[in-house]
Amino acid sequence: MLKVDNLCKSFSRLRILNDLSFAVREGELKAIIGPNGAGKTTLFNVITGRFAPDEGAVRFRDKDITGAKPHVLSNLGLARSFQINNFFQNLTVFENVELAVQSRLERRTAVWRDLPHTDGVEARTLEVLDLIGLNEQAGALACNLSYGDQRKLEIGLALGTGPSLLMLDEPTSGMSRFESLSMIELIQRLSERVTIILIEHDIEFVMKVSDSILVIHYGEKIAEGPPAEIERNEEVQRVYLGGL
Ligand SMILES: Nc1ncnc2c1ncn2[C@@H]1O[C@H](COP(=O)(O)OP(=O)(O)O)[C@@H](O)[C@H]1O
Ligand SMILES: [Mg+2]
Does residue 42 line the site of ligand 1, with CB under 6 A? Predict the structure, then answer.
């Protein structure tokens, strides 16, 4: 579904991504882990066209999307949520999701395959709210949500565009244990509907939910494979896991 080939990206001569290649299969949950500053968010920024790579290419369903603009990616079915909250503070939860749904109204998409068919914006908005567990807060202003719920709303915005590939950047960061558990549950539910690339620092969670894990260190791939293999990998243990 997604193929990343030999990506290189530097900022002021500092190499942040170094010849990075990997692929994501349809239906898979691929986790990306690595120490702070490893280049994980930069990788998302390059995949989603925020930065053009210095070298390399990104392909989505065999289409070259290297450096493609956000609305093009959104049309193709690729959605991203950010490490920081990114929504309209003074609109309600419902209105925020509704805007996302409206932006992609004409498309028939994978996320909705198993849901009752409807073209109605309202119905689809309610479905997203139900999926992210915020239906009871539909009328609340986004700025009044708890931090954990704001992060769910942000995922709701991504889901509103009906993606087939969802990219999540540290969705549990800054959360309480309780909030994290609820977010983990949500991601597990979503992974049954949509292909996910997940940047996440909670290793226990990653080991539990991922089909495949990509480990990055100083912008380079040091390992990639199923959780059990990654757990055993000596280099991963040395640079990152510190004796799991
Ligand atoms: N826009 C930018 N300009 C300059 N340096 C950047 C920029 N974005 C990220 N970096 C640098 O790239 C490195 C990797 O950052 P990042 O991709 O955010 O790492 P991670 O998400 O793995 O913690 C860091 O040293 C960071 O300071
Ligand atoms: Mg990051």
Answer: yes
